[in-house]
Amino acid sequence: RAMAALAALLPAQTQLEYALLDAEAAPQKEDLVYQYLRKVDGLQRDLTVPELGRDLQWLNTEGPLSLHEDLSGKVVVLDFFTYCCINCLHLLPDLHALEHQYSDKDGLVIVGVHSAKFPNERILDNIKSAVLRYNIAHPVVNDADATLWHELEVSCWPTLVILGPRGNILFSLVGEGHKEKLFLFISVTLKFYKERGQIKDNRIGIKLYRDSLPPSPLQFPGKVTVDISGERLVIADTGHHRILVTRKNGQILHTIGGPNRGRRDGRFSEAAFNSPLGIAIKNNVIYVADTENHLIRKIDLDSELVSTVAGVGIQGVDREGGAKGEQQPISSPWDVVFGNSVSGSQEDDVLWIAMAGTHQIWALMLEDGKLPKGSDLKKGVCLRFAGSGNEENRNNAYPHKAGFAQPSGLSLASEDPWNCLFVADSESSTVRMVSLKDGAVKHLVGGERDPLNLFAFGDVDGAGINVKLQHPLGVTWDKKRKLLYVADSYNHKIKVVDPKMKNCATLAGTGEASNVTASSFTESTFNEPGGLCVEESGRLMYVADTNNHQIKVLDLETKILSTALPILNPKPSDVPDHQSVQSDKTANLPKLPKSSPNIQLPSLTVTPGQTIQFLLKLTLPPDAKLNEEAPNSWFITAEDNTWLLPGQCVSGGIKDVSCQTLIPFQLPSSCLSTEAILAIKACLYYCSKGSSACMMKGISFSQPLQIANTNQGSLTQVELTYTF
Questions:
Q1: In which order are the strands placed within the sheet that holds 169-174?
Q2: For the chain: N or C, fewer Cβ within 10 A?
Q3: Annotated region Disordered: where (predicted)?
């Protein structure tokens, strides 16, 4: 049986892991994995995975996949994930990289297994938006009853299970941060089974969910900017891999690139980008952060030509830079903004770059000049300005010692007393300032004091460190009012910050991800807005409302939000018709892990119509903390006595384990039997403080009832206590 499979592999894999720690060189490590595979592959009976139900909802495929038929002859990585677990998201770049290296033709297939049994019927929507937002291009199955999770006795997220070509289990990896081991295991496994002729090179029917979205003029627009006259907008139409230049009424003036991803310089009609984000315009020149091509591109509106000014087209790991732009590898540039060098004679002679991939701020010299605290630099040089490259929320007077965490938005306030760059530092959920006098990096709002804690997020207005944001992706400076606006992306809000007082308040959005256009800012809603800009006059703000596929226009004087900017006369973008994905059936109650204890309570005598109050008091292990992002819940079932349940509240959330949860239950006034059993169950998700993984644990209390017509009191209390 599969149930014992992960446990059965444990001794052998643990032995392998210890041997790998002692191994110095790569060939030695590969040989150890090879020997391990010989052993596991030679077992009398394969440890196999049970079939994944064909009746489950699949995304990114032409139809349901069978592990033992469609995926036989493949090395399969099962990624057990849940969309609310941050560790799972941290694993995705590793899987992306793995997919880049090996395709289904090479014999590798990754399958995301979404296993969390939440009492939440919007689960499929959440998975869909995660698949889109994190650009997950492998098949994903919604294992809603967590069948496979229970069968394999997986215990936490994320867990990777690696299967051989017969569906035979070979390895498992728990938690994040195993990239090197993952690549080692996969490369040796593919080699091992290719030598034995067991790998098939057929293609798997991939049909990306994002390709089935209805056509719209914009798709996931990530950033928007306005030129100095206020008459022209530049929009990064990220999902269509193109840049649009429009009039302020939405009339298209230029379409550059798209609708397919690619990497080509040249005339507007033949140029190609790959998920472009940040844009900066001056006169008739636009600079573009061509994010997934790892390039900075230049668009000349006069000659109608696109060229590359920095990057080599593959992800760089260099954290220093200093070469001429087109020879300098860079990594996932997310935003760009013009600025001035210290000694330069020309305005806007530097292009500042938010280099999300290496967690740094870089500069591209557009003329000869000097950066704060730096030496003379030649035109065209591209180099790091601030950030060590470590992913952290570290402020420091020395720019190279400071640390950022996926900086994703930039705005310049060149006037005194500011004279700084504002940075939306998404993974630390903060806004930071970089002084353009001396490069010092300072905190403005959000996050917390520990530079290594990147989990200090939330949605709290206030001042300084007490403010909480969630993954802000954009900032823009309002010169007229001396205020900074922030796209607080995962809170679906626009915030306003007064840098003098360090105050932060909600300007627009309710916190709900939807698309309501109300005239008042605070009743309107957004869905992960990624960028924003304010025109020079300070009147209009434009917001790239990314997941709503539109640009929203906010009038900062009248405080009225007008509907989305109509994009007029766009070329028809090649997006296929909408294919509806099988609609989600109402999710039932969670299923507890197989290992959950069941506690038998002493029988209770009650009368019809009486109320029982269950007091649920659960205690977590000493160093554990409740994962509040997850749907911790209680629920009541009555297997053979369902007549007890109509009209009752049979489930609810558990927000806090430090106080008891009150669960009232009223017996019907006419009872169909004199005996019944109620089950009160609870499902908790918690993370141990030092670890990179989350657990799901369950507990069930069985309460036998004797129903008598004696005249008992109207209320009985029953305590339900358990320590995990």
A1: 57-59, 140-142, 108-114, 75-81, 159-163, 169-174
A2: N
A3: 571-598
Q: Residue length, the chain?
A: 724
The 10 Å Cβ neighbour count of residue 709 is 9
- Beta partners for residue 663, in sequence order: 614
| Mean pLDDT rounded to a whole number for the chain | 88
CA 398 to chain centre: 31
Q: Confidence band (pLDDT; 50, 70, 90) for 325?
A: very high
Q: What is the DSSP letter of 89?
A: H
d(Cα 296, Cα 322) in Å, to the nearest integer?
Answer: 15
- The model scores a pTM over 0.85: no
Q: What's the CA gap between 468 and 275, in Å, rounded?
A: 29
- Cα–Cα distance measured from residue 420 to residue 497, given in angstroms and rounded to the nearest whole number: 15
Instruction: Output the six-digit token pair for 485.
Output: 């606006």
- pLDDT for the residue 579: 30
Rounded to 10°, the helix 179-195/26-41 angle is 60
**Which residues, in sequence order, are CB contacts of 312 under 8 Å at separation 6+?**
294, 295, 326, 327, 328, 329
**Cα distances (Å, whole numbers) of residue 246 to 119, 225, 237, 307, 319:** 45, 11, 12, 21, 36
Q: Whole-angstrom Cα distance, residue 195 to residue 212?
A: 39
390 vs 403: CA distance, rounded Å:
6
What's the pLDDT score for residue 84?
53
Of the chain, the percentage scoring pLDDT greater than 90 comes to 58
Least Cα distance to 598 among 694, 705, 722 occurs for 722
Contact 542, 231 (CB under 8 A): no
Q: Which of the four pLDDT bands, split at 50, 70 and 90, describes residue 583?
A: very low
91 sits in which H/E element: helix 86-101
- pLDDT tens-digit series, residues 11-30: 899 999 999 999 989 999 99
39, containing H or E segment: helix 26-41
State whether residue 437 is helix, strand or coil.
coil
- What is the C-alpha separation between 61 and 84, in angstroms, rounded? 23
Cβ atoms 378, 344 nearer than 8 A: no
**What is the average per-residue pLDDT within 700-706?**
94
Domains belonging to the chain, first-starting first, are 5-211 (3.40.30.10), 221-565 (2.120.10.30), 598-723 (2.60.40)
Cis preceding linkage at 576, omega within 30? no
CA distance 168 to 73: 11
Place of tokens 């996932």: 332
Residue found under tokens 């005249």: 711
Question: Closest by alpha carbon to 332, among 355, 313, 309?
Answer: 355
The H-assigned helical ranges of 171-254 are: 179-195
Dihedral over alpha carbons 120, 122, 126, 131 (to 10 degrees)? 120
